[in-house]
Prior knowledge:
By secondary structure, the chain is an alpha/beta fold. It folds into 2 domains: 18-41 and 294-401, Aspartate Aminotransferase, domain 1 (Alpha-Beta Complex), CATH 3.90.1150; 49-290, Aspartate Aminotransferase, domain 2. 39% of the residues lie in helices and 17% in strands. The strands form 4 sheets. The chain has a 7-stranded mixed sheet with strand order 4-12-11-10-7-5-6, with helices on both faces. The longest helix has 31 residues, at 371-401.
Amino acid sequence: MSSHLLPTYARVDLAFERGEGAWLYTASGERYLDFTSGVAVNALGHAHPKLVAALTEQARKVWHVSNLYRVPGAERLAERLCAASFADFVFFCNSGTEAIEGAIKMARKYHAVSGRPERFHIITFEGAFHGRTLAALSATGNKKYLDGFGPPVEGFDQVPYNNLDAVKNAIGPATAAIMIEPVMGEGGVRVVPHGFLKALRELCDKHGLLLIFDEIQTGIGRTGEVFAYQISGVEPDIMTLAKALGGGFPIGAFLATAEAAKGMTAGTHGSTFGGNPLAVAVANAVLDEVTADGFLDKIRKNALLLKQRLAELKDRHSSVIAEVRSEGLLMGLRMVPPVGEMVDELRAEKLIAPAAGDNVVRLLPPLIIGEEEIAYAVNAIDRACTRLAQLHARPAKQEAAS
């Protein structure tokens, strides 16, 4: 079937007509368990009644007024995010990559107004993913994504992941900040050691740098805390959010301390749609659910259960699963065979999950899953592993026979 959509995605020939909770349904009525969640976006699943109500109620009032005027819902959301975090200020935008751009601008502006305009370089890490705009791509540093788009934006210094000596060697007179994901999602669900994050904080304090945490994939409950940094106890100066913040409605944000934000005065940054009444109405409803009594406890309980069941599968299918990685309900299975094979086999089992770097299949269920969905997923993964083990054992047997 031909399409007028720009062919920048290798889309699966599968379309969903509706969703309910953790399940998606095709027009013909086939049911799939959603362990993609729109790539960690649909934190409360599909058609959540509280989100539907919030959006519908706001849609009857006002959709857009621009940031020339106050938006009370945005002010309330910013107050709540700051109360739940280290931050004093929030800027709302529309996506994760916009949040990253804002964080980059803030870090550079901080040093400029502090009398150090030469400080504009940001240290980032190999295997990271920060977005698709030109500056975010340059921060990511992946040649595959940069190829063909001209020279990378200046001011980003990549160093090996979890290598403190490399970070120390990269710090120079032009360094402004260090930026890292507490869990590298696209990079293969690599959980950054807490000791490494602590060491980065100490380096930033020693050299007068800002520490930026990219929590676009980890924020708003995914790890069992509202924000992933709260697990390590290491506070950043700037943090980016998106994905789960709107539960499926597009919204991004970057948060900062008053000190880090001191250069961001009137006219230094803007967004036409950022913090619009529809987006913040839904995001406030998401926060209502995520911060409700017992919600995070349930995430931690279900994450532990799923992790234990996945560990059992790894032991049973060691020729297929090399490693289980996890932080809360951000999980990954590092595969022995090519990860694409596992993604296809899971889809055949009516379980959808995305691939990531380092030959990892990510498991990103909605945060509302329970024991029924966990049992379904584990059984589906078990059957998929059995088929892959048989498939890859055949050539070896044929070789031995010859």
